[in-house]
Amino acid sequence: xxxxxxxxxxxxxxxxxxxxxxxxxxxxxxxxxxxxxxxxxxxxxxxxxxxxxxxxxxxxxxxxxxxxxxxxxxxxxxxxxxxxxxxxxxxxxxxxxxxxxxxxxxxxxxxxx
Amino acid sequence: xxxxxxxxxxxxxxxxxxxxxxxxxxxxxxxxxxxxxxxxxxxxxxxxxxxxxxxxxxxxxxxxxxxxxxxxxxxxxxxxxxxxxxxxxxxxxxxxxxxxxxxxxxxxxxxx
Lengths: 113, 112
Prior knowledge:
A: seven-stranded mixed β-sheet, B: about 110 residues, mainly beta, six-stranded mixed β-sheet
């Protein structure tokens, strides 16, 4: 049981480049989330999805896009990378409702130079 | 806005001493509350959760937390710290649309 798998683990981007962070879960969870983690700031929600075909913005969505074509996959797209997007990105999923808590992936460390 | 405040960004304890990590939430309605632990270069792992069934919640690795509505607190404790407890700890609360709001984290250092 792999849980939540994120790829790549590390990436360096140049300013203005684009990339997609991949997230896949094999637990048949309906809810999926993307967070970014910056030192001393905790985790901030970027986008979330309550099921295939349904996505919504979180607290810090600017500069990002998402799609949810299947239950398993929830990729995060960065267009025109900026230094402010240097961060650690975590994907998470949950079963039906919040009281189950989240299952997190191991993260993607992104540096924009 | 709903928020979570963790008092103390860094806490140091000696091995064998009591661990106390503080978390306060803002809400007039008791929310779902969680503690997560993050070891270096890893994702977050669920330690324990409060969902109104009991005010004292026991989690993994000997940790527990007590929900106190009058103090809007959900502090994390462990009677005796181990070296392996060194990590960053996050308090989180459930909100609308089934999202979690996280505190800024507390880095726990365990001294030999």
